[in-house]
What does this fold into?
Amino acid sequence: MNLKSHILLFFLGFASLGYSQTKSEEKNEIIEQRIEYIGGDNESIDYSTLFDNLYYYYDHPVNLNQTKQVDVLLELGLLSEIQVVNLKKHIKENGKLMTIYELQSVEMFDLPTIRNILPFSMVSSELFAPNVSFKEIMKNSSNELYTRNIRDLQQKKGYSAKENEDDTRYLGSPDKLFVRYRFRYLNKISVGITGEKDQGEQFFRGDQKQGFDYYSAHFYLKDFGRLKALALGDYHFQVGQGLTLWSGLAFGKSVDVSTVKRNPAGIRQYASADENNFLRGGAATFALTEKIHLSAFYSRKKLDANVTDTLDNVTNEVTFSSLQNSGFHRTQSEYENKDAILETHFGGRIEYISSALRIGANGFASRYGGEFDRKLSFYNQFEFASNQNFVAGVDYNYVLRNFNFFGEFSRSQNGGIAYVNGVLLSLDSRLSFTMLHRNYGKEYQNLLSNGLAESSNSWNEKGIFMGMEAKLNKSFTLTGSMDFFTFPWMRFQVYSPNSGGKEFITQLSYRKSRNFTAYFRYRRQEREVNNSQVESAIYQLTQESRTNYRLNVSMKITDYLSLRNRVEVSEYKKRDTKSEYGFLAYQDIVFKPKSKSYSFTARYALFDAQSFNARIYAYENDVLYYFYIPAYYKVGSRFYLTARYKYRKKFDFWIRYGVWNYRNEETLLSGLEEIQGNVRSDVKVVFRYLF
It folds into this structure.
C-alpha cells in the first residue's frame, strides 16, 4: 500500500467518529482557528501582536456598552465597519444593551457574527470613570512575566567543531530565548520590556556582554482626556489603507474577504520580537476638537545592512548595498552588519472623525545615515536607492447605510504615486460583497508602505479584487474571491513588463452545532514567470500555477476531547511540463479535562510533496504567544505534543516536543543549518507568572 492510500485511510478512520456537545470551547482553539481563518498561508508574517490582543481580550472582554471600546473588535477583524457603526447607532437610539443576545436586533448582526465576537466581548452597565485613580489602576491591572526557550535536539553544522581555521561557525548557543515583562491596565495603559536571543547568537559573552541580542521597551497611554494616544519607546503607527504609513501586521488575501480592507489601529504599543517592523521613539495623538485629531511621531533606530565601505570613521557613516531584515547575528559577518546605519522618520497626521466619516492627511520624512549603493539592474531600477525620502498621502473611510467606501492616495518624493479604492457592501446579515482596485506605480518608493498586494511590496502592481460571503442557511456559509493583477514593470525572475496573474479562493463551511464544523477550500494561483527552458536573447514568459484542495473537519467527541482532521492536495505546474503534487493528512487530538489544571494537544501528520513548489502550509498548535506555520514538503511524517499545566491561577507552564521524520534523506537543511540524518526535532518550554 502506497503513502497516498495510507493518507486516505488515516483520515477516513478518524472522520467516522461521532461527537457530543460541550459547553464552551478552549481558548487556544478559538484563537488558533481565528488566526488560521484570517491569516492565510504565510510562515513569514509575525502574528505575535494579534496573538497578544486576542488572548488579552479573551480574558478581558470588550464592554459593548462602552462604545469607544467597540473599535477594538474592528481592529481584531471580528466586526466590519458597517456593523460597528450600526451598533453605536443602536445604543445611541435605544440605550445600553441589556444582554449580548440583544445584538440580534442590531442591523447586520446575526447569530454567526454574535458567536464570533462572544468570546471577546461582554455587556455591562458599568462604564469607565473619566478620571481614573491610582487605586483603580492597581486594582484592575495585570502583571505578566513570560519566558520561552526553544532548542533543536540535533546538532547543526554551525555548532560543530571547525574542520579548517577559515571555517565559519555560529558564535553562540543553539538556544532561542525570549523574556518579557508587561504591566497592563485594560486597554488604557501598557508598560513592558522585552529581550530576545536567536539560535546561534551570543548571550552575556563575546560581543553580546549586555545579554540579549535584541531589547524592546514601551510606555503607552490611551484615552486620557484630549490625549487619545501616547507611545514612548517602541510602537506601531497605522493609518489609512497602509500605502503611506503602516508598521506592524497587515492581513493579505484570505478566506475572510473583508480583511482586504485595512482597519488601522493608529498609535499602538509594540511588545513583540520582530527586530525590524516597528518604530522607536515617540508618538502622540491629541483631540483638538471632538472631531479633529492631530498626530505626530518621531522614530530613530539602527538597522542591519550589508556594508560595502566606510565613508567616515568619526561619524560611522557607511556605504551599504541593501538592508537586512533577518534579525540574525549568529556569525561574525552577520554581527558586523548589525546596527550598521541609522534610520530616522518624523511626520504627522491630521484627521477628521465623525460617526460615519473619517478623512486623514499624512506626511513624513525619512533619512538614512549612509550612502545607499544599491546594485541596480534593468528589473529593479525604480526601487528606492537614496538616503532620504518624503511621502504624503490622504485617506478616507465612509459608511453610508449598507455601504463602506474606503481608499487612499499616496505620493513619494520622486513623484511616484500609489492609490487604492474599495467598497464593502452588506445587502443584509446573510450576504456581503467586497471590491477593491489598486494601482501602485513602478516609481512609487516607500519602505513604510504595507498596502494589499500580490507581491511583498506596494509598488509596480495593478489589480482588482472581488469577494463575496453568503450565509446560505444556519449551517452553510459560502465565501469566494477573485483577484486579477498585473505588474507594469519587470520583477525578479520576471524579465518582461506587463506580466500578470490571477487568484481564486472559495470555501464552503458547514457548522451543524458548536461541536461539529467542517469546510472545503479551493485555491488556485496563476502568474507569469521567466521560461528557463527556452534559450533566447529575449526573455520569454510562461505560466505557472498552484492549486490547493483542502478538507477540514473539527468535532467534539466528549466534554474533554476534540478531534481535528485535515486532508490537503496541492498541484504545481508550469506550462508544457508535468505537474508536481503534494499530499498532507493529519490528525489533531485536543484533550482538556474539565476542572483540571492540565491539557494537551497532539498532531500526527503524513505528507508527500514531490518538490518545494508543491509544498503545503498548515498552522500548528503551539505554546502561548507563539505561532508556527511550516511548509510540509518532501516525504515523511510529522508529530508534535503540546502540554500545559496551570498552578493556582498564577503560574502557567507549557512544554512542546515536535519532530520531523523524512524518508530517504541523508541530510536536512543546508549551510550552517545542515543536520546529518533524516530526523529534525525541537523542544519549547514556556513559563508565565501572572500577578
In short: Confidence is low (pLDDT under 50) at residues 1-25. The CA atoms of residues 511 and 517 lie 4 Å apart.
